[in-house]
Specification:
The complex is a heterotrimer of chains A (327), B (257) and C (292).
Chain A: H1 3-6, H2 12-35, H3 38-62, H4 70-87, H5 92-114, H6 119-139, H7 141-144, E1 150-151, E2 157-158, E3 161-162, H8 166-188, H9 191-201, H10 203-208, H11 213-239, E4 241-242, H12 249-262, H13 269-279, H14 288-305, H15 310-326
Antiparallel strand pairs in A: 1-4, 2-3
Helix pairs in contact in A: 3-8, 3-11, 3-12, 3-13, 4-5, 4-6, 4-11, 5-11, 9-11, 12-13, 12-14
Chain B: E1 2-13, E2 16-27, E3 31-35, H1 42-49, E4 57-62, E5 65-66, H2 72-77, E6 80-82, H3 95-102, H4 111-116, H5 119-138, H6 154-167, E7 172-176, H7 184-199, E8 203-207, H8 211-217, E9 220-225, E10 228-233, H9 235-240, H10 242-250
Parallel strand pairs in B: 3-8, 3-9, 6-7, 7-8
Antiparallel strand pairs in B: 1-2, 1-4, 4-5, 9-10
Helix pairs in contact in B: 3-5, 3-6, 5-6
Chain C: H1 4-35, H2 42-58, H3 64-92, H4 97-119, E1 135-137, E2 140-142, H5 144-166, H6 168-178, H7 180-185, H8 190-212, H9 223-236, H10 242-262, H11 268-282
Antiparallel strand pairs in C: 1-2
Helix pairs in contact in C: 1-5, 1-6, 1-8, 1-9, 1-10, 2-3, 2-4, 2-8, 2-9, 3-4, 3-8, 5-6, 9-10, 9-11, 10-11
The chains are: A mainly alpha (327), B alpha/beta (257), C mainly alpha (292).
Bound molecules: adenosine-5'-triphosphate (ATP) and magnesium ion.
The site of magnesium ion has 3 residues of chain B, from α1.
Chain lengths: 327, 257, 292
């Protein structure tokens, strides 16, 4: 929540409004810790997705680019984690680090030609990248075990200290998610973040001010890939299992719904969106097919009727507060 | 001293010659205005100088260095900053942040500085903030710092774009029709701002349709017509030039001349 | 040097799939011309063409031809539903291009999932339209399904050409493509044209899906790769030019067939998608540039 210190707003209400999502998040984690059971898993998944969506938001919300293929980076790192630990007996931490590096390397190679595309072309190309990752996971059976997937992936830990309790997991994930959101906030309110936001606003104007647009797009893409990869590996270690479906179109659908529920382009939106969606009651039961149907429909409705998501609610309150002050 | 030299600069779009072999020296001191009827090729000339459109022929020399065909961001880094005929603000940012983006070339914080916030980066950010506020005050937007650029009235948007360009500390500032859409009072204020920019040692190259503004602000006037340079000189002399009168009377712009 | 008959075989198979991509590509162009929208749900229509035909044949016991016609009509109607429920509300709100892309992609996912729930996840296929052994011409096997695909595509192209050149509606759609504002001023109901373009485009997708299903299979999730292929076909042909899109589809089909034969059969889809990416990256800048 370091962002609160960086942009000290003169307006008290505003500051409180910014604190709100973080405070609710902390309260939620605390409540889940106390209540235990089912809620722990729900909040854990929410936090993992919050990390993924925070990266997505950096690339799309801050920088104004499009990617439907972030699930590819989650898949690369997730599979690396699963294969290196379950098949080759590596330490989970080392496997995760390797997965992150691999995802980053692929993002670099793929990002360079892809990010020269714009608009519809960029959207289609990234969609294809996500599909390719899925197909590789399905077809490269000797390594990924195809549709069957890989089970028995050990939990995270260092040198014998494994996080085996659900509560330990939750605390660990909460810490990582808080770090992730804080890092995103720090980036947003920095020279790098301003350059990204400038690109979202007008590429021509950004270039006219000396911003190397291609470089900052690639940087945003790489950062988003790291977030996605981290989420992918965390997921695999927490659940102990990976299959192609985990990182399929389902993930894209869910992530975008979360992004739009929370408010695209806002620092806290991803966290809020992820937690809200995860808390929706039917979410965690086994009806994944209905889930995707519901999320897809919800996404369409949001795009039409509330394109700024819950963030527009905050806007409303802020405006009220502003009016009150002037009066 | 010559800030900018154009040698036979030409741009063709298919069969149309938008800019036709323009040769021009822009002195380092003062304000140079480029005028001409609609479609004369003024914006295309700016686009070639600033690297947004590659010339079909000719060269652009900035302080004696050939910058022809370089990408816009490299040209900007050389000290040549432009604004756009249609305002191109970062609508998603506040007025203050817009100007802060203008400091990009003179700051160096990268990803690491953003995350770790070492002392120098924090000082840099404070300096960016201070300078940006100064510039907003300079163009008369001191009280609009936190306002979203998207909701500013049009005249203030134009001024904000100028403040943002100034944040980049240009050696040569190119303004494409800065007075378009401004009322008379705003135009007078703009004229004053442009004069003060020039007095601080920044070369100003200006495209403008507003003749009173040109006459009161420019030291040199260059006239384009159908892509060709047809006149160049002091405002009064150019205004009396028969070729210029002909160009304007021939076109639809007679009212302006 | 590979055997010429083998090369010809690859060509034939590529051209067959290429026709399918071409039809889907035309579907993209029809909507794009009417509205400037790229419909990311295009693949759903292709998938449903095969799926619904299969259901009508299997569950209702209809013969193939009426089943196919019924499927095409149903999918065209669904196209109008997508336009009314998803696209139009965004259109009237002047939503960003990105919102439109995301919403149509979400529509694709919704249709996919609904299909999964209704029809299950088992791949399905259709019988070949003509159940005869392939023709052998100079060592090259030419299946009757290939002839159906080529024949139907040719008929559709001729039909579309006549539609756009002769009929009032076709001319109105062309006018919208050239300049929507001017068309609206001339009293052309631009909104109706948008709905029509979705119906036409959905029908084209359904036909493509029905034609290709006997040669492979269909399942709830086959749509997206087809959509991407059709999109690339449209790009190669110079976005917005329906007949260019068809030629683009042929080029893409052949390129993919070559790539697929060069690789392990299991990696067929990966090769195909990679070819798509390469086409995107290398797209000949000059010819197109229409879509932004
Ligand atoms: N990208 C382009 N492609 C094709 N033609 C162009 C392009 N840009 C400019 N033109 C043409 O070049 C000519 C010069 O245009 P330009 O915008 O430079 O004129 P201008 O002097 O700035 O006019 P105005 O006063 O209206 O701004 C015009 O005929 C214009 O239509
Ligand atoms: Mg102009």
């Amino acid at each position: 929540m370091t962002n609160l210190r960086i942009t000290t707003s003169p307006d008290r209400v505003r500051a409180l409004l910014r604190l709100l999502p973080g405070a609710i998040g902390i309260a939620l984690v605390a409540y889940a810790l106390l209540a235990g059971g089912y809620l722990i898993s729900v909040v854990s998944f929410g936090l993992i997705y919050a990390i993924f969506v925070t990266g997505l938001n950096l690339f799309m919300g801050y920088t104004g680019q499009v990617s439907f293929g972030q699930n590819a980076f989650a898949a690369i790192s997730g599979y690396a984690s699963a294969i290196l630990t379950a098949t080759y007996g590596w330490e989970p931490l080392l496997a995760t680090a390797t997965g992150l590096a691999g995802a980053l390397a692929v993002a670099l190679v793929v990002g360079y030609p892809t990010l020269r595309l714009k608009g519809h072309y960029l959207a289609m190309a990234t969609l294809a990248i996500g599909l390719i990752a899925y197909e590789v996971a399905v077809q490269w059976q000797s390594v990924t075990q195809g549709y069957m997937g890989i089970s028995g992936v050990p939990p995270l830990g260092i040198a014998g200290f494994e996080i085996t309790s659900e509560r330990g997991n939750l605390l660990f994930l909460a810490a990582i998610a808080a770090l992730g959101v804080t890092a995103a906030a720090l980036i947003r309110h920095s020279r790098v973040g301003r350059a990204m936001a400038a690109i979202a606003g007008s590429e021509d104007a950004a270039r006219a001010l000396g911003i190397d647009v291609a470089r900052y797009k690639l940087l945003a893409f790489l950062i988003a890939a790291v977030y996605a990869a981290l989420a992918g590996s965390l997921f695999v270690h927490v659940v102990g299992f990976v299959s192609p479906e985990v990182f399929g179109l389902h993930m894209v659908n869910l992530a975008f719904t979360m992004l739009y529920v929370g408010g695209i382009g806002t620092v806290m939106g991803p966290l809020v969106g992820a937690v809200v969606i995860m808390l929706l009651p039917e979410t965690f039961r086994a009806f994944k097919d209905y889930q995707d149907l519901a999320y897809g429909a919800a996404l369409i409705l949001l795009l039409i009727y509330a394109p700024r998501g819950l963030a527009s609610l905050a806007d409303l309150l802020r405006r009220r507060a502003g009016e009150g002050r002037r009066a | 001293m010559i800030r900018l030299r154009l040698e036979g600069l030409t741009r063709r779009f298919g069969g149309l010659v938008a800019v036709d072999s323009v040769t021009l020296d822009v002195a380092a001191e003062g304000v140079t205005a480029v005028i001409g009827p609609n479609g004369a090729g003024k914006t295309t000339l700016f686009n070639m100088i600033s690297g947004f459109v590659p010339p079909s022929a000719g060269r652009v020399l900035f302080e004696g260095e050939d910058i022809t065909g370089r990408p816009p961001e490299r040209i900007a880094a050389r000290g040549l900053i432009r604004t756009f005929q249609l305002v191109q603000l970062f609508q998603n940012l506040s007025a203050l942040e817009n100007v802060a983006v203008g400091r990009h070339l003179h700051t160096r914080g990268g990803l690491w500085a953003a995350l770790a916030r070492p002392g120098w980066a924090r000082r840099e950010e404070a300096e960016v903030d201070r300078r940006a506020r100064d510039l907003l005050a300079f163009v008369g937007l001191g009280d609009r710092a936190e306002t979203s650029a998207a909701v500013l009235p049009y005249g203030q948007q134009r001024l904000l774009e100028i403040a943002r360009a100034l944040a980049a500390e240009p050696k040569l500032l190119m303004l494409d029709e800065p007075a378009a859409g401004l009322n008379a009072a705003e135009t007078r204020a703009l004229s004053e701002i442009i004069r003060r920019i020039a007095e601080r040692g920044t070369t100003v190259l200006l495209i403008e349709h507003d003749m009173p503004l040109v006459m009161t602000t420019a030291d040199t006037v260059v006239v384009l017509d159908f892509g060709r340079k047809i006149a160049e000189g002091a405002p009064a002399a150019v205004r009396a030039d028969p070729a210029v009168i002909e160009a304007y009377l021939g076109g639809a712009e007679a009212a302006h001349a | 040097m590979p055997d010429p008959a083998y090369v010809a075989q690859i060509l034939v198979s590529g051209l067959g799939v290429g026709c399918i991509y071409g039809l889907i590509g035309i579907g993209f162009c029809v909507i794009y011309n009417a509205s400037g929208i790229v419909n990311f749900a295009q693949g759903a229509f292709v998938m449903l063409g095969g799926m619904i035909t299969h259901a009508l044949v299997q569950r209702m016991g209809l013969p193939l031809l009426p089943a196919a016609v019924g499927a095409i009509l149903l999918v065209a109607a669904l196209g109008i539903v997508v336009e009314r429920v998803v696209v139009r509300p965004l259109w009237v709100r002047n939503a960003t291009m990105f919102a439109m892309i995301l919403a149509t992609l979400a529509a694709q996912i919704v249709i996919e999932r609904a299909t999964l729930i209704l029809f299950g996840d088992q791949p399905k296929t259709l019988p070949a339209f003509t159940d005869l052994p392939p023709l052998r011409i100079a060592g090259v096997a030419i299946s009757f399904q290939f002839l159906w695909i080529v024949g139907a595509s040719a008929a559709i192209i001729l039909g579309l050409a006549a539609f756009f050149a002769r009929t009032r509606t076709g001319k109105a759609m062309r006018a919208c493509a050239i300049n929507r504002e001017a068309a609206a001023l001339q009293g052309i109901p631009v909104g109706t044209m948008l709905a029509l373009s979705f119906a036409l485009s959905a029908a084209l997708g359904a036909v493509a899906g029905i034609l290709i299903t006997p040669t492979q299979y269909t399942a709830f999730n086959v749509g997206l790769p087809f959509a991407i292929s059709g999109f690339i076909a449209a790009i190669v042909g110079g976005f917005g030019r329906p007949f260019g899109a068809f030629l683009g589809g042929l080029a893409l089909g052949v390129a993919q067939a070559v790539a697929v034969f060069a690789l392990d059969a299991g990696f067929k889809n990966i090769a195909a998608l990679s070819v798509l990416l390469v086409f995107l990256f290398l797209r000949p800048q000059g010819i197109l540039g229409a879509a932004k």
